[in-house]
From TrEMBL, chains A, B:
Keywords: Aminoacyl-tRNA synthetase, ATP-binding, Ligase, Nucleotide-binding, Protein biosynthesis. GO terms for molecular function: aspartate-tRNA ligase activity; ATP binding. One of its GO terms (biological process) is aspartyl-tRNA aminoacylation. Transmembrane segments: none annotated. One of its GO terms (cellular component) is mitochondrion. InterPro entries: Aa-tRNA-synt_II, aa-tRNA-synth_II, aa-tRNA-synth_II/BPL/LPL, Asp-tRNA-ligase_1, Asp/Asn-tRNA-synth_IIb, GAD-like_sf, NA-bd_OB-fold. It comes from Zygotorulaspora mrakii. Pfam families: tRNA-synt_2 (PF00152). Belongs to the class-II aminoacyl-tRNA synthetase family. Type 1 subfamily. This is Aminoacyl-transfer RNA synthetases class-II family profile domain-containing protein. HAMAP family: Asp_tRNA_synth_type1 (MF_00044). SUPFAM superfamilies: Class II aaRS and biotin synthetases, Nucleic acid-binding proteins. It comes from the Eukaryota.
Amino acid sequence: MRIQGSQFHTWSRLLKQLPPAESTISKFTLQKSTITINNIAGVAENAEVVLNGWIDKKPKKISKNLNFGLLRDHEGNTLQLVDTKSLLKHAAVEDVVQARGHLSPKKDSDSALELKLNSMTTLNRSNRKPSELQDFKETGDYPPEYRFLQLRLHKYQAILKKRNSITKSVRDTLNDQGFIEIETPLLFKSTPEGAREFLVPSRKVDHNSKRPTFYALPQSPQQYKQLLIASGVNKYFQLARCFRDEDLRADRQPEFTQIDLEMAFSSANDVMQVVEKLLVPLWKQYSASNSLLTLNSRGRLVSVDKEDPICHMTYKQAMTQYGIDKPDLRAPDLKIMDLTEFKARGYTNKDFPVFEILILRNAFDSKESLQQNASYFNNANNYNSRVPIIVPIEDEKDANNWFEKFMTLAAFENPKLISKFLKLKKGDIICGSTRQHSFSLFENPTPLGRLRQLVLDSDWGKERYQKTNKDVATWVVDFPLFSPKEKNTKEDKKYDYPSYCTDAVTSTHHPFTMVKLSDYEKLQTNPLQCSGQHYDLVVSGVEVGGGSTRIHDAELQDYIFENILQIKNSDKLFGHLLRAFRMGTPPHAGFAVGFDRLCAMLCGTESIRDVIAFPKSITGSDLVVGCPTVVDEKTINMYNIRYNSKS
Amino acid sequence: MRIQGSQFHTWSRLLKQLPPAESTISKFTLQKSTITINNIAGVAENAEVVLNGWIDKKPKKISKNLNFGLLRDHEGNTLQLVDTKSLLKHAAVEDVVQARGHLSPKKDSDSALELKLNSMTTLNRSNRKPSELQDFKETGDYPPEYRFLQLRLHKYQAILKKRNSITKSVRDTLNDQGFIEIETPLLFKSTPEGAREFLVPSRKVDHNSKRPTFYALPQSPQQYKQLLIASGVNKYFQLARCFRDEDLRADRQPEFTQIDLEMAFSSANDVMQVVEKLLVPLWKQYSASNSLLTLNSRGRLVSVDKEDPICHMTYKQAMTQYGIDKPDLRAPDLKIMDLTEFKARGYTNKDFPVFEILILRNAFDSKESLQQNASYFNNANNYNSRVPIIVPIEDEKDANNWFEKFMTLAAFENPKLISKFLKLKKGDIICGSTRQHSFSLFENPTPLGRLRQLVLDSDWGKERYQKTNKDVATWVVDFPLFSPKEKNTKEDKKYDYPSYCTDAVTSTHHPFTMVKLSDYEKLQTNPLQCSGQHYDLVVSGVEVGGGSTRIHDAELQDYIFENILQIKNSDKLFGHLLRAFRMGTPPHAGFAVGFDRLCAMLCGTESIRDVIAFPKSITGSDLVVGCPTVVDEKTINMYNIRYNSKS
């Protein structure tokens, strides 16, 4: 970067003083540390050592000639400084210092050492701010604009190091399996049918329309990696930066990292094997429990290994049993039950005829605990659409007449039979709602699926229903290839059924996914009944990654673009893929793992912000550097654009 | 990505036919290869094998029942197919096939094998295009829109693999030295004093000015890595994507990758040691010559090793001896000579008083060879400013009167003395030009420096003056911290002296570079005479990377922003750094290596395009996917911007 100055003639008319030479030069004259605090045990007693670090706390004056200080080094370890020379007299919290002295055993300890200071250089003086923010230091929860102070804490230094180790493991494993990492462009092309993309104005003007042109930042390297397969690459991977300009939710970032991979001449099974070989060892090495569980063929929780690979569950199983396509199997037995067999059925919406229930056994001991939890589960803000009806069983009468509470929703031919089967007891909670037919289950999560999620997110629910604290993995397969487009009806649809367009479908994942071969002919007759060759890896209710066998046949891909998805300018948008498919692109399949989320899970933290050095805020701002910012109009004019007149 | 379709009702009114099930399904039903061509030697004769790959050439019909084909697998190796069943009858070049058959020895060879085809499945049929482009395949030089065909060639597959290996070596070495890789944001803040940045419109509107806001893509992670040092990180690195929206030259890319590193509590020497430990082994492992040379203390070319680390050369030495700050030391003795001591001096511009010469000994044998080369070196298009005067010595007279040709530029007090010293002979060429005083050498390259570069870029010059074909490395240190701003005078300044503003300086590298401590006081009196603590690593005339000791003192940094560079809103632009510096940022230094260029050098290719999977064209377009593109106005309106009215 070249920065332009001006008024070269006026060095004498200085606005600021050049800081005094002596003090500045001493800040830049440093010796290397001879040791880190972690290693001092091995140092000969009374050896002189040099330690660089920060003043961790305000030094304490013990007597006229004795100060105690605390030095923190770059690993976040601390050492007591003993100062008989008033060297610490003016030291402030977070001063950067170089301490020289002798190590000696602490008086009150058998093993701990302290440093008797001989001399100390202040390499950079801190202002009072870190000291004012000391309270945040204790909780670890600094305001985001002080991220650089937060990251100095041991916890965050450990996370940064762990993320580096995980990254290295990922790359080593994939390299060992014959994958090569290839960087793909970030200045890509706008294909606006997807999620909202970030645009990058270019200075080029389209020579036909005379309009300005734009790059787009990629949502994933999907298209480039398919082009790499067309380019003869056999096994590709990349830790790739991806971008989405979506309205941010608590745990979404506008830029994020994924482990992206693709294999030529391969099918879903090959990819799933690679992913298991990649991820299972990461859980064994890095997660808090050093293990990863799955369900075996008898539905028992077992550790994933050769005999018990990660279980497979169809989308339909996941949706009917757990009400969501990413079931949290740490509570494998907390299942939703379809009462159709018992001749109960919903009647309020003909597309949602299935009445289903979720029973929370031994859910409450007292009225108070009940009210507390029920209000949380009843809160409509926690739901996308309908809130399930929640019926606590407070006595014998409730146990027999529970169904009456559901009669606004469902008709029961033989409620007594059901009661006999359900065996409700005082302290149970029965929750009920309706859903679509099993063969066209598109509402995801269902109201009960969402309720189950809320239960398992609460400490109360975890304690009662989770069978394990360890992570539990499953593959989810046989997703619908297409989904009907949801209608945007009234603004507050929380209490309503979702409704779907009858004349438009969207790709459930992306338009490059291959149909299940057994459903091939249905592409013509009933696309919504087609399953795709897509597979998600779900761990403890989190979609860790997903992948699919891709289409490599240009005519089939074109058919899906034009006839099913009704994309008008598909050749303009995706012509590069179609052209490549027509010149010898082999069959291929691939996968992508959300790497930030993976790191957060392996680091045992809830928020992906903890594992990103400089995360964006929920409004997409970087509060450390202060961006995005206004840019002067002259600059944006270079891109042949200008502010909207109203702005 | 979710793609929206429409007209769900009209499945019957199909525009395109669904491709027939049978042929499509067979394309997706594949067996794994049992072997690669590279490994067939170990297979038992007559074993049945499965090989996946491409039809490399149009099959040859030998007789009615015999076709020969050539299969190429993903490693780019080929195997002869022997077909007695007319399986290859309709095969086209670049068809993707699965071949099953028996291996048997080739009739006309002792060791080579061929595959007797039992059956073959076409996994994807290619159109005629690859066959039409066969001529490009032979040269390897496909039109850029067919990059995916080009990358299938063995050369490019090898480059992709080699880049992956180099990447891995870099990461392993840095990890072993205690560096951790940390990803920094790509949605950064616009700091428009630098090179032109790419902007990324955000949907946020600034609440004060009501104007739209923008992110900028980073030119390098410089500011974030300094913030990481402020965050207590001890040794950071990253293979980082960087962006510059500059007018592209032949070998510039708008996005590129650099090895970026930074070390806390460290100085220039620490960083240079790390860089040598990182890069020297790469040259030994990956370069064609498996070695890296440098100059020893006696000016001899020696292999870099512990006894002979990479030599150091000051900016002044480089500029006076080689006329450029990135000297090509493969011709260490081809040096420029300052004739000031001989009382020759330039008189046409008082700021360019030094007359200097470069002698090309034994440069030509005949008039023809002379003319050919001289016209190349005389071509003003190859120079930024003045073209040197070039005087071939064709006879004894020329050898004595050479100086007369330079008298339009320089005055000579005692030309005979100089002649005696120069010992010019028939066949030599003497080139002369003027330059600035050694203490304010800002024209870079000088005319003779540029000429020297042209000589060494030519095959003719390489042959005559290069002492080695191996790469030769040097450190260049003691750069001027600031440079005067060049005036944009007339458009064609090729024949003119550069002229400089007297009232504006720019940072020679960037504004975060620390001044040499011995020059500290000159910041106040004469900034242009200050050297910076910056160091470039130059290999064979290429600036492989550069780094510096950074300023970590907020007051000094602020002084440089405001008083020297006269940046008015420095706190707005760089406040994040100043704030961090004021809260305990340790001393630090770092480095960045241009990774694409490094890979190109190690792969022995001239163009960085060869080592980038999907490079942009010289106009910044991706010709494979076709971007940048026009975006509809509704989309850009979301960002509160619109097309310029004139567009």
